[in-house]
Amino acid sequence: MKLLKSITIGISPLLAMSFSIAILLSSCGGADNRKSTRKVSTKVHDRKAYALGEEHAANLLKSADDEDSVQEGLLDIRARISNIESNLGRQSAADYERGFTDYVRKNCDSLARIIF
Q: Are the C-beta atoms of 9 and 70 separated by less than 8 Å?
């Protein structure tokens, strides 16, 4: 993966990506704060959402040729989480996100350390 090589070569791409990810994760909250305060189970309830998160993580890792494609992919994932929450509920969105993060942690720990 070219992205991982560029990250290990210099600290500048690492800082840029970390900053971008931090902004992405903190700025994508919904307008309805009541939804985000609802508790969700730590156990996976929506197996389909979890599996879809894993599938999208696998697709992202396959196409992660450079930093731009990773950032675009992460924006897409964040949009999907928001869409799932709006249409299926917070638990399904949490399960989708959990599937995504679990897959990345298992299959690309160097990228996981940067973005999680």
A: no
Tell me which amino acid residue 1 is.
M
State the pTM of this model. 0.67
Q: Residue 105's pLDDT is what?
A: 96
Could you tell me where the DSSP H helices lie in 2-89? Answer: 2-9, 11-27, 33-37, 47-62, 67-88
In terms of Cα–Cα distance, which of 31, 24, 35, 22 is closest to 85? 35
State the burial class of residue 111 (Cβ atoms within 10 Å of its Cβ: 0-12, 13-18, 19+).
buried
Residues 57 and 112: their CA atoms lie apart, in Å, by 11
Residue spans of the domains in the chain: they are 2-28+43-115
